[in-house]
Records
---
Amino acid sequence: GENVEQHPSTLSVQEGDSAVIKCTYSDSASNYFPWYKQELGKGPQLIIDIRSNVGEKKDQRIAVTLNKTAKHFSLHITETQPEDSAVYFCAAYDPGGGADGLTFGKGTHLIIQP
Amino acid sequence: DAGVIQSPRHEVTEMGQEVTLRCKPISGHNSLFWYRQTMMRGLELLIYFNNNVPIDDSGMPEDRFSAKMPNASFSTLKIQPSEPRDSAVYFCASSFGTSGNTGELFFGEGSRLTVL
């Protein structure tokens, strides 16, 4: 089955700096890569996603890049703000992975220092 | 829409007691998922329903766990008997998707379970 590794587990950056979270996946058949943000006491919420026919996608201060050959994908947040503090999860979807092929990484706790 | 609604938000119980967690998915969604979140293991999929039918329950830890979806607007996750190692946050999520083309998962706010 699919295996998703996510790094780092904790990331602390100064407000205004950029943050990068990286994930690798194992199954080359995976074709959909969402990122979820989980604020304290809440459920994860989708913030951006990318499909395997695209190398990069941007939405205001957040962007996601995908390297299919290396099986890497990354989340980039620029000009970080206090409200970006949260736990971020990457995931990979394998359409042949059974009824539900979405596998999550273990999460990254992003801390924005004022 | 109010989103995915879960109850209770918090549950504290004693070992051996029965626990029932409830979920109301977003109207119109055809898939429902139960996840468990712990620090050690992250987000684990327990069971997945499609059109009210359990499709994959391979993530259910053991026979003490059971889940039902009697209709499109309600699902339960039951633990009987509960054990301290079941302490976790349990999330319900729903989506509208078809096989091979996952839709966005919408999560509820979770049920935090503590078993003493």
---
Amino acid sequence: IVLTQSPGTLSLSPGERATLSCRASQSVDKNYLAWYQHKPGQAPRLLIFGASTRASGIPDRFSGSGSGTDFALTISRLEPEDFAVYYCQQYRRAPPLFTFGPGTKVEI
Amino acid sequence: QVHLQGSGPRLVKPSETLSLTCTVSGYSTSSSYYWGWIRQAPGKGLEWIGSLFHSGSTYFNSSLKSRVSISLDTSKTQLSLNLTSVTAADTALYYCACSTGWSYFDYWGQATLVTVSS
């Protein structure tokens, strides 16, 4: 399964809404779609798993949605610390395989 | 709270074997955890290298399968990655990670910079 993320770069201002897209080349079990935030010099941070479940400690301005081949990550109101690269990731059960999308950079 | 600590930066010569370790702590050895290695080449995105399931089974990215091995020592405190016959294309930041839900990685160690150069 190939994951495509769009746009490649999203230029927004603090307070604005960000919608990031992740499209799969084949249908993905929504239970196995995750989103990560990655900042330079830091380890990636799990935001969303199961397509829409926020990970522990993740603010509720982050939300995930979608099913089948189309998924989205929405940041309702951008905070200064939200400017980063965001990756979607899918998991295939048999045999186990993890695939990351190419990422969307959210910049000021 | 699971904590992962990667080893320091490495300089490896082409054709040699890269060996990385990651010290893991703060988890219950009686619970099911899934371990993984992910890397990021310069200017590129994240690439899954492989995973070690709590069952002991290992699974690898098909592009690396012939060169990679992952293991957890008997004390279950050292996660290891071995990558043979390295080339400049293996230059990257390498992350160790842990999954409590098997299909995502919820705990990550800090990156280890690996440079392949003669």
